[in-house]
Design a protein that fits this description.
14 strands, globular, Rossmann fold, alpha/beta, binds nicotinamide-adenine-dinucleotide, seven-stranded parallel sheet, single chain
């Protein structure tokens, strides 16, 4: 269970793209705490300087302020790197509907640049963030790899294209790639601010400020909310995976199912708040129900998440209470 016992050689170098963001900064800190060398590449577009400030002075860390849209930047960032953990992208389904061209440039071209740079530098493994959005309108639950529907947003298209390119880089160029289809990740350092913030940090912040959160739709949508520690485990385990497991994308979730209205009630209970939510319009491009079958990641990556929703949400709330 977990990743505590997982070890790499001390001189191992990881490149984390998107390291100023939520998932990337958690990865950088986890790796630096284990004593490995970390290069962090981020253009600080949605990520925060304050996240980088937490680790940039660590002697094993190199921060590169740069853009994955520039191939030369990617190429030099990949020099002497053993493992790439590629997280840099623009998230948010609604924002991608507003700005499809930009999403293509950053998420598709940027990822292709990273794949090519990793190949040219003979990186050992290329682990990258995909998304549960690739399941599109496929109604069958739980979501299972190989049973995807029609895509519902430009964001989902970018993630699906990433998977296709990664597959080709494994089959044609022998670069071991592992896609991680994250399902609604939450935890410390997830940004609660802005129009495109994820629901959990947004609701926690609003409840802490005695504000009334808005639930899009009637709250009957469900999600497989996944605590950040499970995502760190998946990334590190993918670095240890076999060549036979490469060229595929895996569901990374806890394997549970929370209805949004129930999730809201859990937050109110733990935060000891008695605030009724408002109900707004359903969001375009959203998947109604999303919960994961994680059998494939268990089998091929030895992924064995040990943070269930309740344990994770308590830890996340503790962090927001201290930091907000
Ligand atoms: P985030 O916005 O907190 O982090 C993304 C980071 O990438 C930011 O620091 C940003 O500055 C950086 N970035 C963006 N464009 C860049 C560019 N052109 N060059 C260099 N850096 C750039 O998002 P996150 O929640 O940490 O997500 C990380 C990855 O996981 C993304 O690929 C996202 O699509 C994927 N993902 C996240 C979730 C989730 O629930 N958080 C779910 C599914 C998939």
């Amino acid at each position: 269970m977990g990743y505590e016992d997982l070890t790499f050689k001390k001189e191992t170098v990881f490149l984390v793209t998107g390291g100023a963001g939520f998932i990337g900064s958690n990865l950088c800190i986890a790796l630096l705490e284990k004593g490995y060398k970390v290069k962090c590449l981020d253009n600080l577009s949605t990520g925060l300087q304050s996240n980088v400030d937490l680790f940039k002075n660590n002697e094993n860390c190199t921060f590169i302020k740069g853009d994955i849209r520039h191939f030369e930047t990617c190429l030099s960032a990949c020099e002497n790197v053993d493992y790439v953990l590629h997280q840099a992208a623009w998230g948010s389904v609604p924002r991608s509907i507003e700005m499809p061209l930009l999403y293509d440039e950053i998420n598709v071209k940027g990822t292709l640049n990273m794949l090519e740079a990793a190949r040219q530098n003979s990186v050992k493994k290329f682990v990258y963030a995909s998304s549960s959005s690739v399941y599109g309108d496929e109604p069958t639950l739980p979501k299972k790899e190989g049973r995807e529907g029609s895509l519902l947003s430009p964001y989902a298209i970018t993630k699906k294209v990433n998977e296709e390119y990664a597959k080709i880089y494994t089959s044609l160029y022998n670069l071991d790639t592992y896609g991680l289809r994250y399902f609604n990740v939450f935890g410390k350092r997830q940004d609660p601010n802005g129009a495109y913030a994820a629901v959990i940090p947004k609701f926690i912040k609003q409840l802490l400020n005695e504000e009334q959160p808005v639930i899009n739709g009637d709250g009957s949508q469900s999600r497989d909310f996944t605590y950040i520690e499970n995502v760190i485990e998946a990334n590190l385990k993918a670095c240890k995976a076999t060549h036979a497991a490469a060229g595929k994308a895996y569901n990374i979730a806890y394997g549970g199912r929370s209805y949004l209205l129930d999730t809201y009630k859990v937050l109110c209970r733990i935060l000891e708040k008695d605030i009724d939510p408002k109900f707004g319009l359903e969001r375009e491009g959203d998947i109604k129900h999303s919960n994961a079958d994680i059998t494939m990641a268990k089998q091929y990556l030895d992924y064995n998440p040990d943070w269930d929703f309740e344990r994770g949400i308590r830890a996340a709330i503790e962090w927001y209470k201290k930091e907000l």
